[in-house]
Specification:
With about 230 residues, the chain is mainly α. It has ten helices and three strands. Strand 1 and strand 2 (about 160-165) form a beta hairpin. It is elongated.
Length: about 230
Amino acid sequence: MSRLREAAQDYLVMRRALGFKLTSWSGQLNSFVDYCEAHQAERITTEFALAWATQTPRGSRDEVNWSRRLMVVRIFARHLQTLDPTGEVPPEDALPHHTRRVAPYLYSPAEITALIGAAGRLMPPLRAATWQTLIGLLAVTGMRKSEACRLDRDQVDLDTGVLVIVDSKFGKSRRVFLHRSTIAALRRYERRRDRWCPAPMAPSQRSEEAAKLTALETAPIRASGIICAS
């Protein structure tokens, strides 16, 4: 194992211990290390960093993509320079266009109602009830969709009206307090869920179902006929 790869692995372990998930960063950083090793480079240089950032697997010409790839190397290089002062840190003005924010689409109350109505026509009935409850919960709590999809039974206390969001962004957890109307809606869903699916799913199956919900998120939108501005 090269010193650069060993340093990259130690860096990823340290960042994850601080709460960063680094879902895409680890793959990109390892790809950069692969590039350096293929060119027999033992240290980070701006030249190698720029060459790797602009030579994407699919030949992308997107400068935002290039900039984000370079940012992965730049942050790692800053860390590495404290251990090896001979390493270079790519300057900030190299490929600076790393921001491209997409304007969020804000659903009106009428559109939310249309979404819930369209979700009710999905099949089978448990899927319809799950989507209706999920859309309503997102609308009234402001939760991230991934947070709502990962909710488990022991994280929902309808007696006190509290949801517990575990290991969310930056590894943080928090409580979400529910209005009584939301509690009533969740109790209705609970009764229907227990009727159609009385046995709790195994952890692996719950993860699969949460992934399916995320993957199928456009189904109610298509069924409602709402056209979101891109």
